[in-house]
Specification:
It comes from Cryobacterium roopkundense. The protein is an alpha/beta fold and 771 residues long. The protein is built from 31 helices and 32 strands. Bound molecules: ligand MGD (2 copies) and molybdenum atom.
């Protein structure tokens, strides 16, 4: 691939399938990482950005939210996929006004996300108005004026402010302040689609919506569960932490329908033995569970732990902890007393023996951590599944001691920080009161729209202005076809973006694309010189991030500047909030934050210390649980799992090794052995036979939800070691199959890992050729 030359689009007929791998990383990871970097950005930008990644005064990796070591850092503290995220952003390819003049919307509609994203960084603000066929350049002044005009012409409840989780703390704080100054809590974010279920389970049970472990805890744990997570791809630096835990004598249990390579063996590319040797074996036990059956598994484990406690009193339950800090153990004990093993085995696809073996590991462990990600958060009963995890942790007193706790592994690199900063459609009263006091504004109290509500609001023509701080709403959400149609009816869509994506193509009647600086870009056009931003990782550590590369265009603005100018254009220069000072000097934003948010006192000063600082975490710091009753809660949930209707399979959607959400770095899902194509359905060999199909058959897919169907055509079946009854496809191709009402109860997170699908054969010659 020539640097600067964007790629060809995907040809699904070139699909290649090989045997899945059983180890992650190694030399190949380094080769791929450097290759991608150099192809996009050249040698010097690649070296400059990668060496600064995750260093103390460097750039927080825009990849995932896994924390950096507080102690010694390696010269190169990054992983293959972090390097790809950086290559994607630091690319020298550019999307200039000429690009928009050359390609009409009609043409761009035929392109895949792979092609769009690979065109490069957007260099100038552009606009498209009703009747236009192409985007064209607009000045920043005119763009802001247009935004102000449209927001003022609307009512607050018809304006929506979406955030994708790359936005730094300071920008997120200003953004929610802007929405609230206008008078709306319509602040949907990617967290609604991601770990909202975790927050919904953790807040009422342990009194905080975040994880309770540090990186050091991962190293020290005696037993770690990695559940519903593919760390080899989505959090590769987690593998080093797991390897360190193994080194210290810890054990690992992996729970996943798929035998993901990163769960089994890790060849650390940052050590000589990792590059060429056998690597470290990770999972001691692998429970290949059926999709959606984790609640059944955790209930069975609860039953076995309590059974053992009855047999040898004092051997399992941490009675002092339970008596002092928790409520509800009696009801939990009673509910777990009986178990239907036949049903449990059928639901999970696991044997009683396998489950008992893992229960024994829990009994033997004095410090257990349970990690989870989207495999647990995106199903109708997700919140109850996660509450069941908390039950297990509470039983053995696994809070507030080294090597123990709950670990939701977050997604976007600052998704946790954005929420801390108040990007939430359901803000708490204390936060609004603090905002009102600090800024003399009158924040609205009524709750706003989350991501799923926003899709509904689009469909029902209830949105006039949609502002998107990063992200790709059209493709990230459910019901792609319906949503895209509905988004096109919105009066004004504003995308603050780095790269072209589908949401720009399926734009509102008038649409603005505003190019912004990314994490790796220097941000120095300020009276006081270069500015730094801050982020919060998955383990509540807050630290600085600053880019070191010259931006590829002088016309891009930093996110805080864009927000301030939108606010001034909308609210006028005499508004109570001094937007201008905040955009000029980010210390001013941080001073405000320090007075509004608990845990941020002396923000500016503490941010400048070596490792940043850790936010207060009552369960972790002092075994205190700030729930409404001041105690942690055991909960009782009914047994629930997913049963596909006759002739259907349960479809989960997941990320390939070569993508970042809706952005595709390349077409090589290397660990799973699938390359050059993405429209695939992984299916168990016996299910394929039962349904009358063969490996590599071409099918159209139909999903069923409450009597309604959705359809997505032209997928290839790939026989794969997934459990019976459970299929898998890539996100976002499968989002067209997602009914928007299929959600997790309580959290309203889409059930992206819980669709019921069937297939109809498709003749080979029907295959439309993509570009
Ligand atoms: N390189 C890269 N890094 C990323 C991202 C990316 O796209 N690319 N995305 C970021 C974001 S926003 C997020 S939220 C995270 C996502 O991180 P992950 O949660 O790891 O992402 P998914 O690819 O959705 O993988 C879900 C895993 O859960 C398993 N699974 C599915 N259903 C079930 C189930 O019912 N039970 C169990 N036990 N397992 C199940 C799947 O087989 C798969 O291994 O990663 C972040 N990091
Ligand atoms: N079927 C299915 N659907 C899912 C999921 C799933 O597992 N299955 N996962 C869900 C999850 S967990 C998430 S988090 C969402 C992801 O949803 P989003 O966060 O909305 O999507 P991304 O693909 O991460 O957004 C990519 C775009 O962000 C912009 N961008 C990149 N960096 C920056 C930056 O620094 N600043 C700004 N302003 N813009 C930037 C680029 O223009 C790029 O096109 O998708 C959800 N959808
Ligand atoms: Mo996410």
């Amino acid at each position: 691939m020539k640097r600067g030359a964007p790629v060809e689009d995907i040809n699904e007929n070139s699909l290649v399938v090989k045997k899945p791998k059983t180890h992650a990383a190694g030399l190949e990871a380094v080769v791929v990482a450097l290759d991608r970097g150099i192809a996009q950005a050249g040698v010097s930008r690649t070296a400059k950005s990668l060496l600064r990644l995750n260093q103390r005064d460097g750039t927080d990796c825009p990849g995932c939210a896994w924390p950096e070591s507080q102690g010694h850092r390696k010269t190169a503290e990054f992983c293959e996929n972090g390097a790809k995220a950086v290559a994607e952003e630091s690319t020298l390819r550019t999307v200039t006004p000429d690009f928009w003049a050359e390609h009409s919307i009609a043409e761009l509609e035929t392109k895949t996300e792979y092609w769009l994203g690979n065109q490069g960084r957007i260099t100038h603000p552009v606009v498209i108005r009703p009747g236009d066929t192409h985007y064209s350049q607009i000045s920043w002044d005119d763009a802001f004026e247009l935004i102000g005009e449209k927001i003022r012409a609307s009512t607050p409840d018809r304006t929506v402010f979406y955030t994708s989780g790359r936005t730094a703390n300071e920008s997120a704080f200003m953004y929610q302040l802007f929405a609230r100054s206008i008078g709306t809590n319509n602040l949907p974010d990617c967290s609604n689609m991601c770990h909202e279920s975790s927050g919904s389970a953790l807040n009422p049970t342990i009194g905080i919506g975040k994880g309770t472990v540090s990186l050091e805890d991962i190293h020290q744990a005696e037993l770690i569960f990695v559940v519903g997570q593919n760390p080899g791809t989505n959090h590769p630096r987690m593998l080093s932490a797991l390897a360190e835990c193994k080194d210290n004598g810890g054990k690992i249990v992996a729970v996943n329908p798929l035998p993901e390579a990163g769960l089994f063996n890790f060849r650390d590319p940052q050590t000589p033995t990792g590059l060429v040797g056998k690597g470290v074996d990770l999972a001691d036990e692998f429970l290949q569970i059926k999709v959606g059956a984790d609640l059944a598994l955790f209930q069975a484990l609860g039953h076995l732990l309590l059974e053992e406690e009855e047999r040898v009193p004092g051997s399992v339950v941490d009675h002092d902890f339970v008596a002092e800090n928790t409520d509800g153990i009696e009801a939990y004990r009673a509910a777990r007393k009986v178990i239907d093993w036949e049903e449990t085995e059928a639901a999970t696809g696991l044997s009683r023996l396998e489950i008992a073996k893992v229960a024994q590991m829990m009994v033997a462990s004095k410090a257990t951590i349970i990690c989870w990600a989207l495999g647990l958060t995106q199903q109708p009963h997700s919140v109850n599944t996660l509450k069941e995890i908390i039950n297990l942790l509470l039983l053995q007193g696994n809070f507030g001691k080294p090597g123990a706790g709950a670990c939701p592994v977050r997604g976007h690199s600052n998704v946790q920080g954005d929420r801390t900063m108040g990007v939430w459609e359901k803000p708490q009263e204390w936060m609004l009161a603090a905002l009102d006091k600090e800024f003399s504004i009158d924040s609205p109290r009524a709750h706003g729209l989350d991501s799923v509500d926003t899709v509904d609001a689009f469909v029902n023509n209830n949105v006039d202005v949609f502002v998107s701080m990063g992200g790709n709403f059209a493709l990230a959400c459910s019901d792609t076809e319906l949503l895209e149609g509905a988004m096109q009816r919105v009066g004004l869509t504003v995308s603050v973006s780095t790269k072209p994506n589908r949401s720009h193509v399926k734009h509102g009647q008038t649409s603005l694309i505003l190019p912004t600086l990314g994490r790796t870009d220097t941000d120095d056009k300020h009276p006081g010189g270069r500015q730094v931003l801050s982020v919060e990782d998955s383990m509540s550590v807050v630290r600085t991030t600053q880019g070191r590369l010259d931006p590829v265009s002088e016309h891009m603005l930093a996110e805080p500047v864009i927000i301030a100018r939108m606010a001034r254009a909308t609210l006028g220069d005499d508004h109570a909030v001094d937007w201008k000072s905040m955009a000029e000097d980010y210390d001013v934003i941080r001073d405000h934050i320090s007075r509004v948010l608990p845990g941020f006192q002396d923000f500016n000063k503490r941010l400048k210390t070596k490792n940043g600082f850790v936010l207060p975490n009552p369960p972790r710091d002092s075994r205190s649980f700030k729930t409404d009753i001041g105690l942690a809660r055991f909960t009782v949930s009914p047994l629930e799992y997913l049963t596909p209707p006759e002739g259907h399979l349960i479809l989960q959607t997941m990320r390939s090794h070569d993508q970042y959400n809706t952005t595709f770095y390349g077409l090589d899902d290397r660990y799973r052995g699938i390359s050059n194509g993405r429209r695939v359905i992984l299916i168990n060999a016996d299910d394929a036979v039962d349904m009358g199909f063969q490996d590599r058959d071409l099918v159209d897919v139909i999903s069923t939800f409450q009597g309604e169907e959705r359809r997505a055509d032209n997928f290839r079946l790939v026989v794969y070691p997934t459990p019976r009854g459970c299929a898998a496809a890539y996100f976002p191709e499968a989002n067209a199959l997602m009914h928007r009402e299929l959600v997790a109860r309580e959290s309203n997170t889409p059930g992206y890992k819980a669709m019921a699908v069937r297939f109809i054969p498709r003749a080979e010659d029907e295959t439309p050729q993509l570009s």
